[in-house]
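User: Here's a chain of 303 residues. Predict its fold as tokens.
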Amino acid sequence: MSRNFELLMQVIVNGFTPLLLLTPLAVVLLSKFNPPDEAARTQAQKLFKLLCLFTSLSLLLWAGLFFFGPMANPTLSWATWIWPLVFPLMHRLAMPTLVARNPELSQKLSGAAPSNPVRSASLVNRQHRSPLKRWHWVIAIGVYLLPLIAIGARGLFPFEMPQTGVAQTSGANPLWTNWITMLLTYAGIGGSMLLMAPRMIRMSLVEPEPMVAQGAEELARAYQERREWTTKSLFWLIVVLMPACLGTIYSLMIWLPNQGPMVGLLGAIVGVCGGIVGSAVGIIGSIKRYRVQQLKMELESKS
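Assistant: Prediction complete.
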């Protein structure tokens, strides 16, 4: 029973990453293919081939780590932690491919209306109007540093060899190797998220916000409310929640090396809950976007 449970946990936890890496390609394949001319068709095919290529390379990297790389514990493979590759696959390749396959999607995403080219503009530098305060970043840095300190502190104690129980701190001990690898991995992943966060925030602040021809304070307020909600949601989800969950799981794996199945189950639960939260944020964001677009259409119909 214990062996079957461990096998099930290994399938669930390790299978999450390849499925996530395939998501951008699946989204493109399920999208509508409607290029307006031959040049757009060629561009769409070129981008699609690039997406297939880099998706294949990501899956090959996962397979290499899974089948030939070290195991973090009996349940979890190091291949699991390459899942952040889904972000460049989605934003750098899948989204441009979607727009190339169906240019109408770009208009829908931006709220543009070619039938009425007359627009008013809100002359505000939104890059300097972030709803995030200094204390937000203090929390983010603290959330990143606490697990880093917890993982690093394990190196202050001796590592007992699994077979002999003899304390040993050299690289010949697999526990020492796992510790230093996890420390560097978490420092790299968490640090990268923290470094990319300002750019991500700026991108959310400068998203297109087309106004109606006569201008409307109500529409400007609706844009501002949605922009602030999006910015804060991305911040708490990606800059705070994800490093906190990742750091907690890494810390447990380091301090409880003999509890692989339990930590694996906890990691699976955290991953599923994180996916649900991320999906909920995406759905709520889509609803807010739709409401703003509805308001814009109502104001345009009155002009």
